[in-house]
Write a structure and sequence with these properties.
Structural class of chain A: mainly beta
Order of helices and strands of chain A: EEEEEEEEEEEE
Distance between the termini of chain B: 37 Å
Largest interface: A-B, 21 and 21 residues
Radius of gyration of chain A: 13 Å
Radius of gyration of chain B: 14 Å
Largest sheet of chain A: 6 strands, mixed
Structural class of chain B: mainly beta
Shape of chain A: globular
Number of helices of chain B: 0
Oligomer: heterodimer
Order of helices and strands of chain B: EEEEEEEEEEE
Helix content of chain B: under 10%
Chain lengths: 113, 118
């Protein structure tokens, strides 16, 4: 069974600062995919970034980057230059090809103006 | 690209009636779609996996006769909540798997449907 753990129910960051959201996971598979999704107050789930486990290079999408540590089964999300629009619930998720996404419990991110 | 729509966005119905929710992939073909339920301040709970042209696969504890899923085309899946009761009130979200876009098992989500059963 796969599990995804987000140990930070809530985080806050000053606007323009950098924040890191933590995610750890457990799977017996060697080839899998990891995702960060954002759910703003509109409740639309938005893909932020994805990482393929076989790639050692950390994924980056503009201000969003990940620190993927495969051996430690850690997949943290770093948001640089935080903006008010980044305020949302962030979910870490894991998939290894059986088509099901396993989600963490989420981290609510607040941006302080 | 990779846009998923859901209709309706909100629905209010009386107890005992049935409600149909549509999920469409607008710019890609989706052989597989997923239906989730989300309670307030909680994560998404997978209800079922919908495969085009075949029967849906339901998660443990989800009533098949209560939540009917049809995936009749590569761009449309429907969820029908039959004989709805107040405890079925929730936020329902669909997603579609785009195999060709990013070439990975990435799911794109619809905007969700808020169901309120009176």
């Amino acid at each position: 069974a796969q599990t995804v753990t987000q140990s930070q129910p809530e985080m806050s960051v000053q606007e323009a600062e950098t924040v890191t959201l933590s995610c750890t996971y457990d799977t017996s598979e060697s080839d899998y995919y990891l995702f960060w999704y954002k759910q703003p107050p509109s409740r639309q789930m938005i893909l932020v970034i994805r990482q393929e486990a076989y790639k050692q290079q950390n994924a980056t999408e503009n201000r969003f980057s990940v620190n993927f540590q495969k051996a430690a089964k850690s997949f943290s999300l770093k948001i640089s230059d935080s903006q008010l629009g980044d305020a949302a619930m962030y979910f870490c998720a894991l998939n290894f090809g059986n088509e099901k996404l396993t989600f963490g419990t989420g981290t609510r991110l607040t941006i302080i103006p | 690209g990779a846009v998923v729509s859901q209709h309706p966005s909100r629905v209010i119905c009386k107890s005992g009636t049935s409600v149909k929710i549509e999920c469409r992939s607008l710019d890609f073909q989706a052989t597989t779609m997923f239906w989730y339920r989300q309670f307030p301040k909680q994560s998404l709970m997978l209800m079922a996996t919908s495969n085009e042209g075949s029967k849906a696969t339901y998660e443990q504890g989800v009533e098949k006769d209560k939540f009917l899923i049809n995936h009749a085309s590569l761009t449309l899946s429907t969820l029908t909540v039959t004989s709805a009761h107040p405890e079925d009130s929730s936020f329902y979200i669909c997603s579609a798997r785009d195999l060709e876009g990013l070439g990975t098992d990435t799911q794109y989500f619809g905007p969700g449907t808020r169901l309120t059963v009176l």
